[in-house]
UniProtKB/TrEMBL annotation:
Function noted in UniProt: The main replicative DNA helicase, it participates in initiation and elongation during chromosome replication. Travels ahead of the DNA replisome, separating dsDNA into templates for DNA synthesis. A processive ATP-dependent 5'-3' DNA helicase it has DNA-dependent ATPase activity.
TM regions (residue ranges): none
UniProt cross-references to Pfam families, sorted A to Z: DnaB (PF00772), DnaB_C (PF03796)
Record text on subunit structure and interactions: Homohexamer.
Record field: catalytic activity: ATP + H2O = ADP + phosphate + H(+)
Keywords: ATP-binding, DNA replication, DNA-binding, Helicase, Hydrolase, Isomerase, Nucleotide-binding, Primosome
GO molecular function: DNA helicase activity; hydrolase activity
The species this protein was found in: Paracraurococcus lichenis
Protein name: Replicative DNA helicase
Domain named SF4 helicase: residues: 196-501
Amino acid sequence: MNTIDQPPPYAGAGGLLGLSQRVPPSNLQAEQALLGALLANNKAYERVSEFLAPEHFADPIHGRIFRAVQRRIEAGQLADVVTLRPEFEHSGLLDEVGGPAYLAQLLSAMVGIINAGEYARIVHDCWLRRQLVDVGEEVVNRAFGAEAELSAKEQLEAAEQRLFDLAKDGGTEGGFVTFERALTEAVLMAERAFSTPGGVSGLPTGLRDLDAKTGGLHGSDLMIIAGRPAMGKTALATKIAFGAAQALVREAQEKGEGLQPRGTVAVFSLEMSADQLATRLLSETARISGDRIRRGDISQRDFDRFVEVSRELSALPLVIDDTPAITISALRTRCRRLKRTRGLELVVVDYLQLMRPAAGTRPESRVLEISMITQGLKAIAKELSVPVIALSQLSRQVESREDKRPQLSDLRESGSIEQDADMVMFVYRDEYYLAQRAPKELTYDNGAKFEEAMTKWQADMESAHNKAELIIAKQRHGPTGTIKLFFESEFTRFGDLDQVHGAIEGH
């Protein structure tokens, strides 16, 4: 029975032994004092409404009383002993604690309306402790084999996910930021852009026109690079990761000799192994075909160049994790560790559809699974204040259109990709599709028409040769549009396109 005489704060404290006999953390006196304050003066609700919910009360009856108070106040009605009595008399909700008269007892438990916020924080803190107890019990039960299908590693990831969700959803932090502080941040960002060549306030990508369009890569942003197979998604993401790592080294060198870069670039390669990705980077930088490197078909001069470039690249603050089918919780844990130990400035995930949701979760559909992954990536970007670039496949409906340039509706398996992303970019190479549409002499009635079609096709191929388009279909903080890029298929290398002179900047 609930009476005003209750156990002291955090009832159930004791040693580690006899865990099953311990009472979950609660403070019923604080719950009663809080409800009494709310019933005495509904304005006290303003101090607790942002973070307190009915389920946070240890006593379910107190939770129901709070829900009734909450419902009436949010409907603009008075919630006190008189107005709530008929509701509880009719429902019989308070019968086991003495009936509606219990409301009057709560009023007598009130110490002071001014303390309502403090009481609410005590109630919330006890709830968080109970959740931690539940997580601990779940971890113990799983470790003893309650869910035998989960390996020890997956159990660890599931526990980390539960703790992360609890920290994210159960915290009382947040709220308003003064406009003065927000303005200060905006001015600092503008100052960085003003003092940086090219007006880049974020982390440079190594692609001039992309930086001009976006201002670089910004913390807390989730960016999606999508495209059909063979369009060069991985090559573009690698180029951006490489450009960002180079920018971090340049920044450290400009600040003084011997200074280490302020952070690293983390690439999670779910499709390619770390050595395959390293070979691709070496191929791009040394301008030696990756296919020739794999076959050993290179000269001594090429090999010397290869070794020289590898030494240069080894100094870059770039790390690769090639764990296949990594879960969102494992990725978050590794990013946190990297941020804490070496600093973290950019995360690249290749690619989205190969990831798995947190261990221990069982989404009902693939769409819900992708939604959980994109929400998790956005949460990582915000929590660690780093830009996250995730690659994504596109649906096959692109191939059925005459104009095969991708659209937002082509994003595969979930509209949540478009919804959660701050920026969506599509990689498109017209040369790839033109090569598949070479005229065939057998389909023409006479040689003249075939020659005419072949001449036009060759002109189109020449116009599209070594060119790619990066279509910015969504940008939450800036304009959309198309950026022309240079693409060398031999080295799977993207670069800036100098449209005036037809050359690659930086060669």
